[in-house]
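Researcher: Next entry in the queue.
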Amino acid sequence: MSIFSGSSFGLPRTRPLSSKRAHVVSVLDIGSTKVVCIIARLTPRRESAVLPGRTHNVEVIGLGHQRSHGIKSGVIADLDAVENVVRLAVDAAERMAGLTVESLIVNVSAGRIGSDVYTASIDLGGQEVESGDLRKVLIAAGHQSQGNDRAVLHSLPTGFSLDGERGIRDPLGMYGDVLGVDMHVVTAERAALRNLELCINRAHLTVEGVVATPYASGLAALVDDEVELGCAAIDMGGGMTTISVFAEGKLIHTDAIGIGGHHVTTDLARGLSTRIEDAERLKVVHGSAVANGADDRELVSVPPIGEDDRDQPTQVPKALLTRIISARIEETLEMLRDRIQKSGFSPVVGKRVVLTGGACQLTGMPEAARRILARNVRIGRPMGVSGLPAAAKGPAFSTAVGLTIYPQMADQETHAGQGGLFSPFGNGNSRFARMGQWLKESF
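Model: Structure for this entry, 443 residues:
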């Protein structure tokens, strides 16, 4: 039976880590441009002011990446092609690490990722809030998110309320008449998840956990103050661009649009009448998201499409490349600006936006984003891990690195109805974490 059948809580869940022992984690980032497998060793770390929510140090011991085939805008279009690429990426990581991988934490970008907040409340009758009350209100919120065609990826309590007073982080032991909770639930279409599972299974591997791409890239690219004060991480991939909004240390909103760096390449190939691979090279070497005064005077050589040796490359002004590129980039950034505005989280994001993902490396991208988004913009590279080869330290590897960080965050999530309840609070020594452990063992 498929691991994705049954209730909306039927996805495989990444087990929260033991804070006292080391773990080896294997992850797979399946993107439209590349497929990346990372094997990492997680060792317990002492609490510190740097990355205070992290319980483990992450050291990359194996890395394999391959150019994607069979993926279009995050959606699996050719099972055989994707299976082959997955095998090659995993095999390269296994050889580097000297380990064999059996199960993986996998990202998901497809399936029209949804982001909703559900509110539930229960009557306390003026009594003290007990662990059983917390469990009831979390289950009540979780049940609202169940749907036959969608599966829950993440279920994160963002805050409790007592008698209408919101923003309570720790209601346990407090008195009141009504206990409420706001639950951020991230969902995706089941069909997309089943196809993802099928690809992994065909490569003789199993899915250990599924993480929404915007969550993973945000975990890798944002610093503590951004996550706490409120910030949007925009991951610009080859076929998809995703948004994640963080505040008060938690993921509070996600979104995705089916446009990425590959669409810029395709526009160039059409506009200049050249092959896709030549258009990609022109974009990387000569492309820019903003116009430059010298672009009209500088000529760029564009190879012809035909195989005839007599066909000569054409010379076009660099300004033409910039016009084609900037039109698509501006359209994408305007869509992102409107999505953030429409979400209602624009005030939470404030002036902080971090761009990550391979497509954000285009020359002039931060300047274009600052102008259109009207916010402070920086390029986010993966942080908080050691052992990354130089080639994997750029924004293109943020999602893969974020997947290795994610297991430390798994105990912030609530998955009621799975025979257990992960503590909604990350500190393994807190009263909440101990209560979550007790609930997991007792129910």
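Model: Confidence is low (pLDDT under 50) at residues 1-9, 416-443.
Researcher: Noted, moving on.
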